[in-house]
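This part of the workshop introduces the protein records we will be handling. An example says more than a description, so a record of this kind follows:
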Amino acid sequence: MSKVMMLNTTYDTCEQAIDQVFETFPINVSGKRVVLKVNALKGGDPHKYAFTTNYRFLAKVIKKVESLGAKEILVGDSTGTQYYGRSEEVFETSHMKEVAGKYYKNFNKNVTIVKMEQPIKRELAVLKDVLDADVYIALPKMKTHGMARLSGSIKINFGIIAGAQKVWYHYMTVRPERFAEILVEAHLLRKPDLVIMDAITAMEGYGPASNNTHEVGKIIAGVDCPAIDTAISDMIGYTVDDVPTLRICRDRKLGETDISKIEIIGNNKINKQYFLPIEPEATYGCPAFYEEGVGVQYASIEHYRDKVAWRPLIDRQLCTQCQECKKEYLCVKYCPFGALTSSGEGPKVDRDKCHVCCSCMEWCPNHALMMKADPVVIEQLKQYEIDNKYPVFDAKGKRLK
């Protein structure tokens, strides 16, 4: 029987709860290379918002792993939304870089290429530090999500996919069910050895970056990700059929999704009704953001198209002034797909090879490189949408055709 631990606690007192997690789910980290992957979606005040793992929770997990004799500890993630290619900035504004200290690493600077076969065949740049970890501990934030409905322990691995490649999948999969298949495939790339979820102050409403918070007051832990997400779903009012990733896991017999066969250690009660997203028809027209007094803001096809069409734009003046790239351009050296090459005028971009992993942005020491929508790619995508009969929605999320 799978176990899921749900312990009542606070950010000030969660050290004891974390001790209980490691007693219940013992893993050997002594002498090992331990990766702590957080949820570092975007920058924001961690005292006001709950779309990233809280730094106070992270600090106490680090302290515990240190005490267990880990040989090496690495803390990082691949950022999202408008912060693609700006990982260090997110860690700074969320205070996670400060508490991670010497353990912080920009995971986006160390990627490797893997081949995904389902549901869309594609090469991907993914975080090598996570794949190569001796022990991988995932530290997700408890959130709901406009497309996936639940952003839990399965979806934490979507952050293994580097940079704006994540937007590519939002754009190409279109339907929630197909998007959920991507989340499950990413989960299987490297399943966490242990999940400890920050559900002390959780996020509710239309994620991944809603401004709405919910004081759940728990840490949630386990080693079976589908079981963890099933227990959370049951706690907040979803069934397995409501959550596409859990439906897939049930059908493929990945982990435990029968709540009657999951042992809950602790308390699975919440203090008030959770604000749950409705299931959208498609990525476009999906409610992506909600704020009191503002209302629902909808994702648009233009939003996703522009980011899929991103290609590196180089400020030649800043680039030539940079002292760190005198011998070789770091963006060229570390582009995993060979989309950047050296020329007499500086780095040159091959738009057809670029996968939008944003590693070039992470490596540019003088911030001379940014991403901008390529007009040629925009036109190619518009034709792709016509050929594949993409759905069309208005600004209110109503389907037009």
Remarks:
- Residues 4 and 379 are 48 Å apart (CA to CA).
- The mean pLDDT is 93.
- The longest helix spans residues 176-189.
- The radius of gyration is 21 Å.
